[in-house]
Amino acid sequence: MSLAENVNIVYVLNIVQEVVVSLVVALAAGALSWTFLEYVFHRFLGHEHRHNPFGAEHTAHHSRGDYFAPWTRKLAAALVLAAGLVPAALLVAGAPGGAFCAGLFAAYGGYEVLHRLEHVHSGFGAYGRWAQRHHFYHHFHDPRMNHGVTSPLWDIVFGTYVRVEGPIRVPARLKMSWLCDPSTDEVWPELASDYLLRMRRDRA
Ligand SMILES: [Zn+2]
Ligand SMILES: [Zn+2]
């Protein structure tokens, strides 16, 4: 192989490497951006300024425990966001813009799955245990704290992070379907160090 051919191959490989790196970085930036949106939507639209359609759905989620906004509404909201964001990102940044959007919407999908699992499934690894306790602290102890669902990052940045110590006190009327042994209606023994039931009379 001639020197000129070698130089050409190295040149092409360098370009491919640059493209791949830029796509991976854009994908990660999109996912990171979703975690920020997750925090901002939840904290500001879901709680602090909740007189909006998202806030109404989120209030219902808090007050009814097993309620989730209909997936058709979530899909419609995601499509509206995508219709504005994807063309703009492609126009401004080309392929990395598309990768950014892919990362953002993939992370959004991951958030939806994780949030649903937290409420309907017990135990799915160390991360799942952490995510559940972080989220149920928000639900049952202090809704002004722990707004992040997939990560504590933005709670730490904005000073709303609480490291959850000891068991979560779950109001009996809002208990998760997986929390108790149906034959005794008491918290499964293996979960007793993480959760306990709070009866109405315990509030006094
Ligand atoms: Zn929730
Ligand atoms: Zn909330």
Decide which structural class fits the backbone: mainly alpha
Q: Runs with pLDDT <50, length 5+?
A: none
Distance between the termini: 85 Å
Number of distinct helices? 6
**How much β-strand is present in the residues?**
5-15%
The largest beta-sheet arranges its strands as 1-4
Main beta sheet, described?
A: 2 strands, parallel
Helix content: 55-70%
Query: What's the helix-strand series?
Result: HHHHHHEEEE
The radius of gyration computed from the alpha-carbon positions, rounded to a whole number of angstroms, is 22 Å
Which molecules other than protein and nucleic acid are bound?
Answer: zinc ion
Looking at the structure, what is the overall shape?
A: elongated
Overall pLDDT confidence: 92
Instruction: Count all strands and give the number.
Output: 4
